[in-house]
Design the sequence.
């Protein structure tokens, strides 16, 4: 019994040519007429109507799933644009995929419920190992979406995933499912059979100053902190630099200084990026925050980000016990690009040093990461997070 993996990548300026080049590389490595599973990470300009047609013609996948990304992570390269095609053939592992569209028109809890239920119905293996999802449109009520999935799969079942991203525009995101390009949707991959999936999630941000209290919330909008306009928490620490928050696409402060909400049950800080500052000083977050929560401004640097990657990789390796990883998937906050810059390659190498230099590696930058705060030991506490790195090792 065996599992083979291959990763093809291209950033040819013509999207059709790039898609074909990535597929041809995968086919040359796998050398089989069909492919059991294809996972695609692509920047928005490469998600074109001909995408799945080309993949299907070249690789003949049984199942296909994927997401848009503001950048592609590879073993020896980080690209702001391009397409990565990951092919898996296995007589050990079993896969099932599912999709739920038009999330803004649905009860978000039942959407998660249906996504997981549809995946289970199509998986023939008796053993289920983990569920991976790529989504858009769950940000305002992610806890209910996660609850719906777990009602089907169980409260202690490994659930991980990402929010689809683009280049900080928040409008060119997409999810891929079989022969369809979806928007405002969630796609899921259920992994089972004879396999082991290990993962770790970390951020290494530290709190600044004394805790404050979120006193008024409207969904994912923080209106007041300590009964003052929410933006004042930034003005207190950043002074005049806080004015740069109004240009969120360009300034680095939103990446280096997210908000952190302390979670009593896990002892970790749940991070939230800010995506807008309203005229009344309210902060729009990429994910909900409960009213009454204890909040800090958080800080990190290049070394902290790399250390978080090492920590996440070590947690993933620990979960594999004595099995060797056959594929590494990395889901990382797109904000880390601003913090790490050219040090991204050092972070990738740090992950490979833990899980194996010759193990195929690919990943995406996300607008949010779904997983536990820490290792699988904390699997009962699953959150939509920001500013984290999620390392997934499949063996």
Sequence:
């Amino acid at each position: 019994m065996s599992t083979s993996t291959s990763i093809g990548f291209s950033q040819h300026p013509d999207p059709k040519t790039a898609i074909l080049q990535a597929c041809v590389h995968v086919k040359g490595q796998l050398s089989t007429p069909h492919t059991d599973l294809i996972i695609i990470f692509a920047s928005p300009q490469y998600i074109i109507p001909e995408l799945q047609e080309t993949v299907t013609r070249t690789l003949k996948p049984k199942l296909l799933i994927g997401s848009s990304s503001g950048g592609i992570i590879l073993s020896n390269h980080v690209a702001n644009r391009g397409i990565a095609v990951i092919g898996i053939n296995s007589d050990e592992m079993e896969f099932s995929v599912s999709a739920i569209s038009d999330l803004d028109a649905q009860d978000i809890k039942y959407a998660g419920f249906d996504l997981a239920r549809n995946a289970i119905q199509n998986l023939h293996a008796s053993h289920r190992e983990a569920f991976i999802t790529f989504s858009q449109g769950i940000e305002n009520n992610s806890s209910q979406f996660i609850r719906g999935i777990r009602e089907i799969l169980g409260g202690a079942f490994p659930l991980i995933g990402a929010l689809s991203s683009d280049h900080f525009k928040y409008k060119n995101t997409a999810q891929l499912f079989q022969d369809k390009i979806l928007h405002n949707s969630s796609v899921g991959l259920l992994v089972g059979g004879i396999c082991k999936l290990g993962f770790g999630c970390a951020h290494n941000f530290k709190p600044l100053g004394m805790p404050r209290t979120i006193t008024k919330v409207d969904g994912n909008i923080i209106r007041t902190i300590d009964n003052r306009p929410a933006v004042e928490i930034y003005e207190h620490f950043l002074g005049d630099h806080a004015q740069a928050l109004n240009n969120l696409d360009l300034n680095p402060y939103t990446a280096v200084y997210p908000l952190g909400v302390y979670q009593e049950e896990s002892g970790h800080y749940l991070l939230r990026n800010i995506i807008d500052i309203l005229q009344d000083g309210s902060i729009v977050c990429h994910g909900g925050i409960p009213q009454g929560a204890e909040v800090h401004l958080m800080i990190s640097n290049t070394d902290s980000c790399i250390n978080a990657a090492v920590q996440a990789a070590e947690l993933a390796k620990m979960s594999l016990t004595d099995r060797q990883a056959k594929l590494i998937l990395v889901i990382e906050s797109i904000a880390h690009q601003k913090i790490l810059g050219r040090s991204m390659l050092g972070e990738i190498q740090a992950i490979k040093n833990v899980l194996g230099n010759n193990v195929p590696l690919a990943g995406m930058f996300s607008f949010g990461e779904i997983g536990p705060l820490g290792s699988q030991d904390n699997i009962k506490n699953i959150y939509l997070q920001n500013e984290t790195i999620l390392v997934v090792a499949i063996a």
Summary: The chain has a mean pLDDT of 92. The first strand starts at residue 3 and ends at 10.
